[in-house]
Structure formats: structure tokens, C-alpha cells
Amino acid sequence: MTVVAAPNASTELLQHLIRLQCVNTGQPESGDETRAAELLRAVVDVPGVDVQSFGPMANRHSLVARLPGTDPTAPTLLLLGHTDVVPVTPDDWVHDPFGGELIDGWVWGRGAIDMLCVTASMAVAFAELAKRRVALPGTVVFAAVADEEAGGTAGAGWLLDHHRDDVMADYVLTECGGTPLHTPSGMKLPVLVAEKGAAWTRLVVHGRAAHGSTPLMGDNALVKASEIVRRIAEYRPLAEIHDTWRGYVAAMEFDDDLTRVLLDPVAIGQWAAHHPETGFAADCHACTHITLSPNVLRADGKTNTIPASVELEVDIRTLPGQTEDDVRRLLHELIGDDLIGSVDIHFMHEEWPATASPIDSPLWRSVERASASVYPDARCVPAITPGGTDARFYRKAGATSYGYGLFSKELTYDDYVAMFHAANERCDVHSLALMEQLWSDIAVDLLA
Fold it and tell me: In CATH, what number does 197-347 get?
């Protein structure tokens, strides 16, 4: 008989956040995260807490709540969540992606994993700390920010540029990590101390317009773009076994055969290709390879008009040490001499390199101690994530920033990885309860 954990305070809040449908398409008018800021204000606006909201536009506000410590010289901990989610294809879902339904102990909906479960549990934990009037020397800040899913320029990045004193902290905890991984040497809990960089790129492919009935008179930019997509999709680079990856593999203590595969630049790519549906294999591949994913194609004209230009957007994720210049050289190579003269290359944001935080820190030790109260036989291990988070802004600003959470054993690592930006996102009630306690335990341990 399966025992289903009872709903907790984070459960209902997560359901409400999902139902707000703060979908960020990357356009300024999307998201409307101000609604989420207002919802969360009602949770954290308790006596002793300073609550503010900021944003570059009326519809893109972020919430910042501060619980001041008793010692102005003591460190500050920031619990950093985001409130926007990515679009959905409803037909791919088993349940309503914005229904926030609680079914057999699981909350279903877009953002349930990425990252409204963390945001909701952080808000509840922060409010409980304030209500308990725990006299901590250090300050705790909770921020629920907009625009993470489109790069953070209207969220965490904007806040640090315009309201730095309100949102800066010595230590930052944000999304990802904390999913139990079973290895021959015991359970491991990945703590994301590093993340890959990004170089989102818009390729403008030029041709010559003509009537669709006389294709020989035109130079079809869409045909050129499709060939570029094919070349990018077929690119198979060798893995780069960087120091962060070596440290992760060593800490995980896999069996000898898997360890050899994960440290071999050729073998790891072949192994991952044979396990394409496995979240762990896909994650290992992405953490050791530069990846290029052509995801958006826009053509001008109409059915009977040969397009003179096409825009192709490519999600490029870079490894530690790789720069925009490296990306530009790679794109020139992949596009080829025969087509490069017809293509303009535009990076879609400022340079966004891979980032990392030190492991030897008070925050790391607090994470270890708080996790041990739930999983006493588990070991926290430093890991890198292939995705981007708002932690990068804080690392650049000098803060020690980790991606973490604490999930139950009911949520497998493969399922966890597979749900990001995909269909049928869901988070179990047990995990929400674990994270509520986690944030409070870390804050007390670190700041007291």
C-alpha cells in the first residue's frame, strides 16, 4: 500500500502559482509576473518583514522580502525563486497544464518542477521564520523574480543593476539539485555549484524574393536555412572533460566501468547516444559538450512568395572557458564557406559565460548539515547544470550561489531531468514538505 503524504502549506501555494499562468514567451508583454508577486506578498508580509516589489514594467514586477538580522555585520542569505514559466503544448499533457491539480499526492502543472515548487516552499519557509521571530544575527531575504526563463534581464539582472542594495547577498540558494541519486557507494545529493554558459544566437539568412510559381528566379532563404539546420543538427563534437566534471564524477563514486565512460571524451558521447531517453545520460552529455539546438524559424512572405530572408534562433550552451569568439568560429565552420556569405550572426544577449562557486564555504557546510537531517547516509556532491539559472548574476557579483532543493525518493532523477520545459510536470507533496524544512534549517544553521 502506498502512503501519500498529507498536503502542506507549500502545496496550496504551488497550485495557485501554477494557475496564474505566468507564461514567459520572451516578449516584454508576456509573463505578467506581477500577479505572482502580489500573491506571494500576502504570504510573506508578516510583522517584522520589509516587503517591496520592483520591475522595469508594470507587468514584470519581482517581489523582495527582507527579514533583518540582529547583527548588521553578519552575512545575508538570499532564497531566490522565479515566478515565470515556459509555454506549453496542452495536447501533450495528461492533465490540464494550468490546473494545478493535486492527484495521488502530486501537484501537476507547468512550473511544478521548474521552479514554482522551490519558490512556493521558500516563501512558506521564509514566512514561518518571521512568524517564529527567530532572532538570527544574519539577514534572510526572499526574492520571487520575473523573467528567469528569458534570461533574467527583466528580473534578477535588472534588480542587481537598479536595486542592488535590496537584493544583494553573501550567499544565494536557487533552483535545481537535491534529487537523490543512487550509486554503488550510496545515495548522493547533487548541489549545483556551477552552470554552463549560453550564447543564444539569431542567424539571419538572406536570399532573393520571387514569385512562388517561378522558383528558378528566386534564391530561397528558407531552403538555405534548412540546410544550416541540418548541418547544426548533425554536429557531433567530442566531450570536454573539464575540472568541474572530473570533480563531480570523483565525488559520485560510480562503479569503475561507468567512471571510465564518463571521463572518456569519445565513450561518453557514444554511451549517451545509446540512452537518448534517459535523463541521467542526457544530463551527462550536456554537461560535457557544447550544445547547439536550432529551435525557432521565422520566414517572411506567404505561400506564393519565395522568402528573401529567414531568421533562425539557436540555443547554444557553452562549457567553462568557452567564449563568444569560440562560438562565432564554430558557427562559421558549421554554416560553411558556401553559405556563410548569406548569413548574419547576431548574439541575442550580452556575453553569458559558464560560472561556478567555491565548495569550501559556510553555505556548503550548512547545506550538508541540513540535508543530513533527512538523508543521514547521503553525501552532497558538487555538480554542474547544463541549463542557466539566476545564480550566474550573483556569482558575477561575488556571491556564493548554489542550486539546490531536497526531493523525496519518490521522484527519480530521470523523471526530474525529463520534466524541465517538457510535458506532465509534477511535484510530490513530500518533496514540498522537505524543502519547506530545508530552507529554514539552512538559514538557522548558516546565520546563527
Answer: 3.30.70.360
